[in-house]
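Before the break, one more example. Copy the sequence into your notebook; we will annotate it together after we see the structure.
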Amino acid sequence: MLAAPTIDPELLRAFVTVVDSGGFSAAAQRLLRGQSAVSLQVKRLEDRLGVRLLERGPRHLKLTGEGEAILASARKILALNEELAARAREPELAGVVRLGAPEDFATTRLPAILASFTRTFPRVALEVTCELTLELLDRFAAGGLDLALVKREPAGPSEGLRVWREPLVWVGAEHEAGRDEGPLPLVCSPRPCILRKRATDALDAAGRPWRIAYSCQSLGGNHAAVRAGLGVAVLPLDQVPSDLVILNEADSGLPDLADTEMALIEAPALSSPAARLREYIVRDLEHGVSG
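Here is what the structure looks like once it is written out:
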């Protein structure tokens, strides 16, 4: 019986970086290598696996079906490889890191990142605070946080490092919540809330009357209100619960929504544990940034 082929992590890194960068030239710059060297690494990976991973054209580059399937596994292998290397480099890293994040993000993508970090550095204690973005900014300004993930307008202030960008959508329970009878009932968090402001600004610009039907600090409470048909809400696309309906803007008459953006801000003179957590967050979220 033939042994399964051993895959060099550097070949996987080249493949993932090409995908995340959108091309070989940009990937070469990030990897500090020549473009031909990166292309050769991807070719070696394809030969090793016996499949074609990328469709190359003069002006386009896209994943094949096999490439799509292998990409997720490649990311996991690289993450585990980084955990092992980090533990070997800094086995005694210890301390406290105070991190702030909006509730919706803290209950979706963030837990997996933090779990990976704590497995690698079990002596680092994380103190995670979930609040609205403007409250996080106030806490950060007062020195209460080392790192904070905050929502911002793509065209607004550029403080911090953009680590995530995602479409926003209108959601409801069935389509009756978006009908044209009277002011549109909204379900949202209390002020200050960027998603609330995004919804009301878009409706005002479109001349669509609205009213606040349900306002709750808890994300779960707002989801429950939408499920009950009390109104519609604005959510990031990948945070829409499976039992809620994405309202088609053309059919519902609801206005278009610009993308939301997440930025990572950091206190000056980060401790070693906080700097390491920053690396984990940037690395894991970086491939989600687009546009």
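The CA atoms of residues 189 and 216 lie 5 Å apart. The domain at 168-258 is CATH 3.40.190.10 (D-Maltodextrin-Binding Protein; domain 2). Try to locate both features in your own notes.
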